[in-house]
Amino acid sequence: VQLQASGGGLVRPGGSLRLSCVVSGLTLEDNIIGWFRQSPGHEREWVSGIDMADGTKYYADSAKGRFTISRDNAKSTVYLQMNRLSSEDTATYYCTAIENDGDYDRTDEQDYWGQGTQVTVSS
Fold it and tell me: What is the Cβ-side half-sphere exposure of residue 48, based on CA atoms within 13 angstroms?
């Protein structure tokens, strides 16, 4: 199983980034693909998730109204469009997979983790 995250970078406050997560080795429709993030000195926190079977989307309060998660099953890819970024969004972002009957927002419940992609919001 591989989850390959990309799309991070340096962006100014108020700007946007789109993260991508390419998934391989899994039956996509059996999983929820999610995004977590971790900044220095903070615990890893859940950001968003999408059920690959039916497209149901889930968001943490910090992401609602600014972030949009989407999927392209044909490309085995999940995207996280992040708008109106602030310095508080600076973190390493990880994509994850969990079977779609699991607790998708729990760090310790994820079945698989990808490598992180760094997002830095700074002027």
Answer: 25
Cα distances (Å, whole numbers) of residue 122 to 2, 9, 11, 23, 99: 30, 10, 6, 30, 36
Residues in the chain: 123
Per-residue pLDDT of the chain (123 residues; tens, 9 = 90+): 999 999 999 999 999 999 999 999 999 999 999 999 999 999 999 999 999 999 999 999 999 999 999 999 999 999 999 999 999 999 999 999 999 788 999 999 999 999 999 999 999
Query: How far is CA 94 from each of CA 20, 54, 112, 123, rounded to the nearest angstrom?
Result: 10, 22, 10, 24
Dist. CA 89–CA 31, nearest whole Å: 26
Residue 101: DSSP 8-state: T
- The token duo for 36 is 């977590």
Nearest to 24 by CA among 76, 90, 102, 72: 76
- Alpha helices by DSSP H, listed for the chain, are none
